[in-house]
Write a structure and sequence with these properties.
Number of helices: 5
Radius of gyration: 18 Å
Distance between the termini: 37 Å
Order of helices and strands: HHHEEHH
Number of domains: 1
Structural class: alpha+beta
Length: 100
């Protein structure tokens, strides 16, 4: 006898927006934040101090899932970082992609 899977989209949605999922993505975001601060070059200190994290249960393109964002508010310093070859944003993505 074949088993037929019927996805419960409402249940999946509740799971993706749950407090537990927000905590899970926040833990990964915190590791990313700490790594970004660790590898940030220091000229004026604004770049390293500009890192912060935001979490939400209404993230993603459809605002239907938990999300953690690692943000740097020192825009001029971020551009200098990329131009000077440090490229912390790309290194951060590689770090998260290599994480097991």
């Amino acid at each position: 006898m074949a088993t037929r899977y019927e996805p419960d989209y409402e249940g999946i949605g509740r799971l993706m927006r749950s407090d537990e999922m927000v905590q899970l993505v926040a833990a990964t975001g915190q590791r990313a934040l700490e790594y970004a601060e660790e590898i940030s070059p220091v000229r004026t200190g604004r770049y390293r101090a500009g890192w912060r994290m935001e979490t939400s249960s209404a993230g993603g393109p459809s605002h239907d899932r938990a999300e953690a964002r690692v943000i740097n508010d020192a825009v001029d310093e971020v551009l200098a970082d990329v131009v000077d070859g440090y490229d912390v944003p790309s290194r951060l993505l590689s770090y998260l992609g290599d994480e097991k």
